Amino acid sequence: MLTQILLAIVLLANLIGFAAIGYDKWRAKTDGWRVSEFALVVPAALGGWLGVLAGMRTFRHKTQKRSFHVKLGIGMALSLALTYLIMPHL
User: Fold this and answer.
1) Which helix (H) or strand (E) holds 76?
2) Cβ-Cβ contacts under 8 Å for 73 (sequence gap 6 or more)
3) pTM of this prediction?
4) Residue 5, Cβ neighbours under 10 Å: how many?
């Protein structure tokens, strides 16, 4: 049961991360309110870093911003650390 919940969280985090990157790109093109970088990194930290990376590549967004890459790397490291800590309990 716990495994299924964790997999659902990771899947949802990937979908949210991908969509958030796409939405931020759209808002950047239309001069609207932008999505904060924190809000883009949180899904990555919850296991959705593949979705964020796929969104960056698909929408060609945040690919040149080094400070975002550092924040995303920290989110990915946090995700991997959480996975390492949770795995023995499954």
Assistant:
1) helix 66-86
2) none
3) 0.93
4) 9
| Angstrom distance (rounded) from CA 18 to CA 23 | 9
CB 13 within 8 A of CB 52: no
How many domains in the chain? 1
Cα 6 to Cα 25: distance, rounded to the nearest angstrom: 29
The Cα–Cα gap between 11 and 81 comes to 18
- pLDDT 10s digits, 9-39: 999 999 999 999 999 999 999 999 999 999 9
16, 48 Cβ separation under 8 angstroms: yes
The domain of 23 spans 2-89
